[in-house]
Predict the structure.
Amino acid sequence: MKLNRILLLILAFPFYFNGSAQTKYTVHRKNRMYLGISGGMNFSAAHVVKDYSMLVPTPQSAAYGDDSEKEKDYQGLFKNKGSQFGLYFSYSFKKNLSIVFQPAYQTSSFNYLTAYAWSDTVNASDFSMEMMHQQKLSGVNLPISVRWDFTVSQFSPYIQGGIYANFRHQARKTIFYDYTIDGDVDKKTADQTGETELTEHINKANFGLSAGLGLTYFSNYFAISLESNFRYGFRSIVNDENRYADYTGLSVQYLDVMDQLKLMNLDIQLTIMFPIDNSISLEILRKSRH
């Protein structure tokens, strides 16, 4: 609930300040350059392009009412958390229009559930296992965007859009599991594997579109921004050539092979920036003078 309120607040900022920003202050940013640092959290969601599996259900297994394999159940956007930190660079062509470059190192994640159940008709025994598969991907994001500010006031709401490239650094995988199929695996109490290397299963590079909005507060010698960006990768992230290669050592033991999928990512971050030339970037004009 708290996260939803934060997102709603971010969405409301541009419309609120566009209509009610103080008219006594005007920010002049034409031909200005800013350099800064940023950091925050992100959330990811998987868009499955094609399903893959280790096991194929047979008519005999279906006859018992227990599929040998259930489809993967991917967790929602806000259950897949990550973080990012990086640099900020902008140059204003006009008072409302600028180009922004935000290189960052980002760690994102996506999780899914699988469950298996077997019936041993000879020994009259059953076995079941439910698993939470956690994938963590780390890499360098290179987004470049065009930013439009609604005002030139001290509080300046804006929107931005552009393209980005992502270069994989490393990927890791952990499986949490219990022996009750109930649609939930509690990571705090469940058994788990060690964190294993997943890097060779992930493609080295990706690219896509980015769009976002935010609010900047300008002071005489610095500025602070709160923003949120949504990114969608065009390229599928799993390396098809290595899909069935068991680099993790978990595929055979836990009967898991990754689907082909694309990632969506939503970030929320705070940026503090400074004029590169250390000059005063905010000129206050009081329009209320008589």
User: Anything to note?
Assistant: The CA atoms of residues 206 and 284 lie 43 Å apart.
